[in-house]
Amino acid sequence: MKKRRIAILGSTGSIGTQTLDVIRQHRDLFQVELLSANNNVEMLRDQALEFDPAHVVICNESRYKQLSDSLAGTDVKVFAGVDSLCSLVQAEGVDMVVGAMVGFSGLRPTIAALEAGKIIALANKETLVAAGNVVTRIMREHNTVILPVDSEHSAIFQCLLAAQGNKVERLHLTASGGPFRTWSRERISSAKASDALKHPNWSMGAKVTIDSATMMNKGFEVMEARWLFDMEPERINVVVQPESVIHSMVEFEDGAVIAQMGVPDMREPIGFALSFPSRITVGNRKLDFAQLGSISFEAPDTRRFPCLELAYEALRRGGNAPCALNAANEVAVAAFLKDRISFYDIARINEKCLSGLNFVADPSLDDIYQTNTEAARIADDCID
Question: What is the pLDDT of residue 266?
Fold first, then answer.
């Protein structure tokens, strides 16, 4: 395949660093053109020195001088702020943009890249959760594509490649169940952030790991699947698969089910998105079925994990409801990580923001930004 020039938004986070690990193994296939981070100057500097991108962006403008000084004497051009990032992702020298920023902040640069016709390898859930209708419309208008990086959506995408035009009945998104899968509701109610951050199978950033513990992460993935695969909410099912080796499944009209399997290693879906339609090796270990022994399934318990049902409710309501839920959840999770609220306060705050929503049935991009601000304010008020 032709060498692809890659921009990585959020290169110092979990997905960003694993993306660079894939590229490190295949320098003949990929060239890093742009790296960005919010605050982590030291890691961004080290990445720039190793991969020699044309540009780096530190989104926190107050850290610009520190980064610029640390890269003095190199050919790397240093920029600051989200405006710079939105401009640089549109550059002619970029073929593909990896959206690995965490939270709502990933929306603007993703839209900028789509408007320039760039291929998006999307790991940032919030882009489609908050503005799925707007984002997919822009994608179609500019004749480009969004390739999923989340393991579950990558799995569905891979299974759909085998559909050959046959009708899909349902999508089955698998969930690990998180660190509290076997805990009682009473025990979960007293859990601290340190407990919730102990994910049994996956290595992820703090925000995503907490979302996994509440199962909001799976709810957001349902929302993503609705837009990525043009599927009605009632045809997207969630099933708990604790071993995390079946990454998701597609059920066809005749009852046949195709599953995509592999060890829980994010480098596999990252590598698939970067190289699609080819496949590349990423140095991960291979699945040993004999050692695995068995694979089990459970229905999700929305009494213990009410955030999952809140996500379905927001998706059924449509409009700006998913955006409000996402904004409330970002604020609530940040507060939980600082031990300012309890675990089940996350769901309480999310529900309150949904019920108090100034509903907009067909939101514009301006409506999305306004909803994000208003819902975050309501969530803040719930905490204070």
Answer: 93
